[in-house]
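Local shape tokens:
==================
===
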Amino acid sequence: MERRTCLLALPAAGAAALLPAQSRGKPIQLHLDLNVDPAREKEMVANFHKIFRPTIRKQPGFVEVKLMKLRETLAGAPPANATYRLLISFETEEQRKQWVAADDHQRAWPAIESTLRGAKYGAVLFDLV
């Protein structure tokens, strides 16, 4: 490829990489309500920031990951035995399943799961509309 052709293609390639996932299709979101052992809460949060988040960000189709702590219930019932919600979003459900099957997941998820207790977590999968 000629240098000029390559240089002309760079802005288009960069712009495509910056497009939000929604413009490429509708991503999925997995919501995990976590039953965190109160004695291990700081460990779980540290593991999320140091191990889980850096690992999942490298996965094909990754959109976002968030860890949220329940502040208060404003209406209805709160999630049973859950003080944290882990939100994971991928461009497709197939990519999320590939992440779950990946060796990286097998190394990163136990850092979170080991800090959970009882039923550990509930999971709900959403399609963005």
About this structure: The first helix runs from residue 3 to 18. Helices lie at 3-18, 21-24, 41-56, 93-101, 103-113.
